[in-house]
């Protein structure tokens, strides 16, 4: 059992959510992430790959049009268990991104937030290529990632993932490493992409691109 899961068990479900939100806020303001995504356009059909407990999905569906439909997937058990929004326009499923690609479902917005650093570096390109395959033509992809910087915040984030969450393989990109892979997979190094930062640390990088033809 990790330190994080022990604390969660001791707190119980209601306090766990309060504590998880407060803890996460020390690293990233998810409201800023959701507002940045909503500012990119109007989206109706949204998938979050690696949605975890549903904290970002709660804010995303709140920030998007009331008609937007959300689909959250995660390889971990019980995805979306802390989702706190309207249950009629959201679905969560424990699934791998490749399963959803195989089902032929396509989305006008694909969001990947703080997932890459949990995936072994050799598998990241393939993972993002599968995310690209989920895009409908003209769809938008957003990758939000914590990047490595020489600051105290990064030392705290690394310690949190490595020792509190217990992810022994966690590994962070620098901002330029992240941009290079993002541009390569989603823009084929031609189309432009946008960049934003989420409070409270510039380690929170948000990259977004519209992919003209969906898969090409
Ligand atoms: C830090 S949480 C981020 C949760 C949510 N996206 C957010 O920003 O609030 C990282 C999540 O990525 C998930 N994850 C890791 N590897 C994954 C993969 N290959 N496919 C889907 N989810 C994955 C983990 O299970 C975990 O729930």
Automatic annotation (TrEMBL):
InterPro entries, alphabetically?
Answer: SAM-dependent_MTases_sf
Species classification: unclassified sequences, metagenomes, ecological metagenomes
Q: What is the name attached to this protein's record?
A: Unannotated protein
| One Pfam entry name | Methyltransf_23
